[in-house]
Amino acid sequence: MTRVTLHPSIEAAPEAARPTLEAIKKQMGGVPNVFRMMANSPAVL
Question: pTM for the complete prediction?
Fold first, then answer.
């Protein structure tokens, strides 16, 4: 059971985190779980 929410897609992440997640996806070809977890707090991401 997961204790921290992992957003299944960029569209499901908070709006403030989406541009950063898009940039990560463009650079890396995907979004690693650690970044999906940090998207819960866009300031951390």
Answer: 0.86
**Mean pLDDT, the chain, integer:** 91
For residues 32 and 45, the model is more confident at: 32
The candidate with the shortest Cα–Cα distance to 38, out of 5, 8, 12, 11, is: 5
* CA R_g for the chain: 10
Q: What are the structural domain ranges in the chain?
A: 12-45
Cα(13)–Cα(3) distance, rounded to whole angstroms? 16
Contacts 24+ apart (CB under 8 A), 7-12: 7/36, 7/39, 7/40
